[in-house]
Amino acid sequence: MTIPDFDSLSAVAISARVGSGDLSPAETVEASYDQARKAGAGRDSLNIMLWDDHDLALRDAKSLSDGMGKAGSGGRLAGVPIAVKDNIATLGLPTTCASKILAGYVSPYEATAIIRLREQGAVVVGKTNMDEFAMGSSTENSAYGPTRNPHDIRRVTGGSSGGSAAAVATGIVPIALGSETGGSVRQPAAFCGVVGVKPTYGRISRHGLVAFASSLDQIGPFARTVDDAALAMEIMAGYDPLDSTSSQKEVGSYRDQFMSIATNPAPLEGMRIGVPEEYFPENLDKGIRDLCLRSVDALKSLGAEVVDVTMPHSPLAIPVYYIIAPAEASSNLARFDGVRYGYRAEHASSLAELYSITRSEGFGPEVTRRILLGTYVLSAGYYDAYYKKAQAVRALITRDFGAVFGDGVHALFTPTTPTTAFPIGGITDPYEMYLSDIFTVTANLAGVPAMSLPIGRVAGLPVGGQIIAPHFGEAAMFRIAYALEAALGREAHQ
Amino acid sequence: MSTDRYEMVVGLEVHVQLKTKSKAFCGCSADFGAPPNTNTCPVCLALPGALPVLNEMAVELASRAAVALGCKLHPVSVFARKNYFYPDLPKGYQISQFDQPLATKGTLAIETADGKKDIGITRVHMEEDAGKSLHDRYPGETAIDLNRSGVPLIEIVSEPDMRSSAEAGAYLRALRQILHYLRVSDVSMEEGSLRVDANVSARLNGEKTLGTKTEVKNMNSFSGVERALDFEFARQCAILDRGEKVSQQTLLWDAAKGEARVSRTKEGSHDYRYFPEPDLLPLVLDPKWINAIKAGIPELPADRKKRFAEEYRISADEIEQLTDTPELSDYFENTARDSEDPKASANWVMGEVQAALNSTGLPLDQLRVRPADLAGLIKLIRDGLVSHAAGKKIFGVMLETGKPAAQVAHDESLLKVGDDSALSGWIDEVMQEHPEEAGRYIAGEKKLQGVLVGFVMKKSGGKADPKRVNQLLASRSGGG
Amino acid sequence: MAVNHDDVRHVAALARLAVDDEKLDHLVAELNGILGHMDVLSKVDTTQVEDAKFAPVESTPVRVDGSGPIKMYSPLSSFAPAVKDGFIIVHRLATHDDSADRAP
Question: What average pLDDT does range B4-18 have in this prediction?
Fold first, then answer.
């Protein structure tokens, strides 16, 4: 049997129906696979899923049903199919980071975030396409070809978590996991017209997330609703003794406040929302600017006070990011050497060749470029001028946020991206590609939480609005997002 | 060629493996001897996505060592990545400390031919060990065992304060002894829990600036370090004598050939690209915790030697021997306290106990004769209940059986016989068997008393109380 | 600052990446294109943040000694490219001297 309108059911709705016995986990898994077929998730079409195992997912669903028989409800995500970016370690399915160097690698352990979602009844249906090692802003840098944007198959999904964004946009799953280093959840969320969250650095354990740039990386959820994104966050967030950088701060509830927002005509009263001028440059796409202004009006009508603020160091974020992230990446990716796992060049005749041939053949051009760049900025004689200087400017960028939030502003509202989804192959200059993260990297550098939600369309392509909150200010961020989502209603997708 | 015109300048880098149950950044066992790669997990195999978490015991042991070496323990230290490729370095970087180490600026006092000398300690920092590469197990292949990967180490870097290979040897022995007393490491060069790299340079006597140094590696004993330093110093002196310049390079000591060869590694090929480890926060030590570490430092060798000299009135040589290891000095001290006889305790520990350790190869804590047992034996001898000769026999049985001295003496009938009737019986027999000597003795030839006592002792199998035998014999002598 | 061919060769060697000579021109140009955008940072006054003493309130968390390893659901031999008698196998190092090519 099929589940009517499965592609628009929220995770909250699915788990309620599974919990009540109205649906079985096996049915929701079947519905997810049906939808993947219908939407064209395969390699020859949208190219969303890299790895899936229908039988394995059904077995997981079955054991979930068996467990529910005894335990009752089956958890807050009972029977909810989820898709997982291919750089998050899962048992049973490969974890390859869309790289040839990890071809065939199946992790012998699972990421903490996945364990927590499974404990609440989620079923992993597949691993999604991405830019190799999360290095990219379009999902074109995958060893398995680009993911295509469901809204226009000639265009990119954004990246690096493009597969997960598309899996949610096409209704294959209500929730998917991505990862952020410089905007890799928010930017594809904006391009694909879904909600995407980058938590506070340290809010979700990185244990099991294949490291790109350790001081910036965070796992984050995609969903079609703010409510579902908040639910996934509540479940994944919290201290993990296996990640030294995960925070011991109490998580609390993000969703408890939603009920009162729905019934309150001015739910954002008392909130001050800053609009930073640096995020609205003169050359910003007019359609995007107009949609942002429409959202600002909506925020005002919800009772928020909207103020102009300035973040003077924002324009330095891209250069800073493209020093720090490659530097850390050059070290993080040293472990891919063909010795212990993954791809090993067969025709190497010495250890030196084993290293250099394995790595040259295993890594794609963008990864190679960033390893070279990162190695260079850390090397003797250049460390101070590049890496150390970049860390100092990073501190200034963080201070910008501290100054604004210390000045009574509860959150910021900005466009998520300077453009809508661009054509596949449309950007060839690496630095021009880097600039598509211009509004998102600041939050990663400062470690503050941020999210993107749909605020409308330009020429049929989705546009995202970004809400940025202070460290561990997820509750306030979700409050604003939930209220804005409700206020925009259907307009958010028009 | 002569080395007389030159002065040797040495600084040492010592790596010490900390004695923890598990590794520095994961929960895997740090034990040696497990089958290859069985003490490994996602973290120490550097599997994608695995992250380090610091072992609290490693911090404690490292801090204890740093404090005992007189270093300033820093409230904030930072872990850093040292990046290089090697097949037994799974992450492609070693987690170490770089510009903000755990501790700096200490000293270690050594004894030299010219008296006491303080050697500066530049820094003590924490890091992790690499795995092991076996190059000769399979032809044409290198076999990697990552059981040791991630085991906690400290690196102790000295100032270039040593002026001879003997001073370097003294420094290493003093350092090993302190670390042993602290119980932070097994400090065995043979097992690899202590490793030494030496920086050495030569300069004309009286010269103030340092010459170009070379680094000598691959020594596997303290005497090997001394020989390697002498070899390398002589090589450098010869170069300088020819008016040439020493080039900065790394040499590998070949103990079998007794020479150091220049490593083919190109200088400058190392660029470790250190940067702060983003997977760990800085290590912040609470002042109260630091004070507790300081308070918990046990008595160190220098203090113990001083105290032994004051409390036990034993010779400097004896003190040196007895304080060699904390185990031996504890053993001695417990024996001395229980027996209230330090001198006899020292003799027994250096004599029979040491001999037993040498012949059995057992560690001291597995010796069946515990200090209380040895003290019991010493008391039996002092109280005249067993002879010294019988005491040695009893000790031998105690080693075998673990029984207390008194019981062994009883079971083996080794208690002295002081009973007059038994002694008189033996004296009568001796008198009969040796009528010539007996007659002369009774007639007043007193110098024969010793001979007769000897006969009685022999007849009694060593059990007769010689004091009483003397008394009884004296009463039979004509002289009265 | 700009990189030249030797810089890129050196960096590629450090990173154990083989870079073909015919690709080198392109890589040098590309990296210089990116690095050119970084020059803006050198003009930023960062003295106030550099002088600020590093004073973190939070220490890196610690684990109890002997806490036990993370469970692995499949053994090393299931994912390692070459294993013999439990050892991971690689090509033999060219000379014994290479073993000194590593930090202690």
Answer: 97
Q: Which chains touch A (3 or more CB pairs under 8 A)?
A: B, C
- In this prediction the ipTM stands at 0.97
Note whether A359 contacts C70, CB cutoff 8 Å. Answer: no
pLDDT in tens, A380-411: 999 999 999 999 999 999 999 999 999 999 99
Query: Which residue type sits at A464?
Result: G
Helix axes A317-332, A389-406, angle to 10 degrees: 120
Closest-CA residue in chain C for A396? C49
Which residue is listed with tokens 């002792």?
B457
Return the H-helix or E-strand segment holding A306: strand A305-309
Residue of A nearest to C74 (CA): A108
Interface test with B, best of A99, A216, A335 (most B CBs within 10 A): A335
Looking at the complex, report in whole angstroms how far the Cα of residue A236 sits from the nearest Cα belonging to chain B: 16
Provide DSSP, A12-56. Answer: HHHHHHHHTTSS-HHHHHHHHHHHHHHHT-STTTT--EEE--HHH
Report d(CA A371, CA A329) in Å as an integer. Answer: 6
Torsion angle of alpha carbons A190, A139, A145, A368, nearest 10°? 170
d(C-alpha A229, C-alpha A223), whole Å: 5
With a cut of 90, say whether residue B80 has pLDDT above it. yes
What are phi and psi for residue B41, nearest 5 degrees? Answer: -150, 180
pLDDT level of residue C96 (50, 70, 90 thresholds): very low
Alpha helix stretches (DSSP H) within A363-434: 365-378, 389-406, 430-434
Which one is catalytic: A32, A160, A164, A436?
Answer: A160
3-state secondary structure of A323: helix
Chain C: residue whose CA lies nearest to B128? C104
Task: Read off the pLDDT of residues B183-231 as tens digits, 9 standing for 90 and up.
Answer: 999 999 988 999 999 999 999 999 999 999 999 999 999 999 999 999 9
Scan residues 429-468 of B and list those with Cβ closer than 8 Å to C: none
Instruction: Tell me whether residue A85 is one of the annotated catalytic residues.
Output: yes
Check CB contact of C2 with chain A, cutoff 8 Å. no
Q: Which helix (H) or strand (E) holds A149?
A: strand A148-149
Tokens of B409: 């003496």
Q: Which two tokens stand for residue B56?
A: 């609290």
The closest CB to that of B280, out of C60, C92, C96, belongs to C60
Pairwise CB contact (< 8 Å): C102 & B86: yes
Residue B390 binned pLDDT confidence (cut-offs 50, 70, 90): confident
Rounded CA-CA distance A272/B333 in Å is 74
Helix (H, G, I), strand (E, B) or coil at B177: helix
The pair of three-digit structure tokens given for residue B9, joined into one six-digit string: 């300048």
Interface test with A, best of B47, B53, B56, B272 (most A CBs within 10 A): B47
Distance CA B430, CA B422 (A): 13
The rounded distance, in Å, linking the Cα atoms of B417 and B6 is 70
Query: Which member of C40, C61, C78 has the closest CB to residue A316?
Result: C40
Instruction: State how far the Cα of B199 lies from the Cα of B124, in Å rounded to an integer.
Output: 17
pLDDT band at residue C103 under the 50/70/90 scheme: very low
Question: Which 3 state secondary structure label does DSSP give B422?
Answer: helix
Q: Give dist(CA B477, CA B446) in Å, integer.
A: 8
Q: DSSP class of residue A100?
A: G
Q: Is A198 a catalytic residue?
A: no
Residue B9 phi, psi dihedral angles, 5° rounding: -125, 125
DSSP letter (8 states) at residue B150: T
The 3-state DSSP class for residue B203 equals strand
- Tell me whether residue A244 is one of the annotated catalytic residues: no
Q: List subunits contacting chain C, requiring 3 or more Cβ pairs under 8 Å.
A: A, B
Percent of chain A at pLDDT above 90? 95
Q: What angle do CA B44, B47, B50 make, to 5 degrees?
A: 75
Confidence of residue B476 (pLDDT cuts 50, 70, 90): confident
